[in-house]
Amino acid sequence: MPAVIAIEPARQPEVIDLLRQSDEFHWELYPVEFCYLLDVSELEHPGITVFVARDEGSALGMAALVDRGDGTAEIKRMFVSSTARGLGIAGGLLRSLERHAASLGVRTIQLETGPLQTTALAVYARHGFERIPNFPPYIDDEFSICMEKSI
């Protein structure tokens, strides 16, 4: 049975555990000051929607959509647990984010990831995201790659 993806609150134990796993993953790859990771309280701000992928109740992955209110949105905190990678969770999260973004009137979705995250870069490219010049706050950041997709 495929994972079920739904909008959920950020402040719950399994989501907080995914955030911790994501933090540790990123901090192993990049200097902490170049990791633009929203914490649980930031994910609770208006205009931010958190999606969680679950299988038999267990949280396997998550992503957040930040609606900028100008027809654009940014994907933040996209992460799939190491035990669930390769199962199509990331693609499911991206499709859910895109449907939700379209319902909000978003026309362009952007994201930032790192050059060492080759699997993430490949997933985003497979789903139609193309590399663009870095946008704020990632300008001149050697550890950032920015991408976008029109929907």
Order of helices and strands: EHHEEEHEHEE
* Large-scale geometry: globular
Strand order of the largest sheet: 1-2-3-4-5-7-6
Instruction: Count the DSSP helices.
Output: 4
What's the CATH superfamily, by name? Gcn5-related N-acetyltransferase (GNAT)
Fill in the keyword field for this structure.
globular, Aminopeptidase, about 30% strand, alpha+beta, seven-stranded mixed β-sheet
Summary of the model, kept short:
The chain has 151 residues and is of the alpha+beta class. It has helices at 13-29, 40-43, 89-103, 118-126; strands spanning 4-7, 48-55, 58-67, 72-80, 108-113, 130-132, 145-150. 30% of the residues lie in helices and 30% in strands.
Please provide a written account of the structure.
It is built from four helices and seven strands. It has 151 residues and is of the alpha+beta class. It has one domain: Aminopeptidase, CATH 3.40.630.30. It has a seven-stranded mixed β-sheet with strand order 1-2-3-4-5-7-6, sandwiched between helices. A hairpin with a 4-residue loop joins strand 3 and strand 4. The relative contact order is 0.17. The model has no long low-confidence stretch (mean pLDDT 94).
Secondary structure: elements and pairs:
Layout: E1 4-7, H1 13-29, H2 40-43, E2 48-55, E3 58-67, E4 72-80, H3 89-103, E5 108-113, H4 118-126, E6 130-132, E7 145-150
Parallel strand pairs: 4-5
Antiparallel strand pairs: 1-2, 2-3, 3-4, 5-7, 6-7
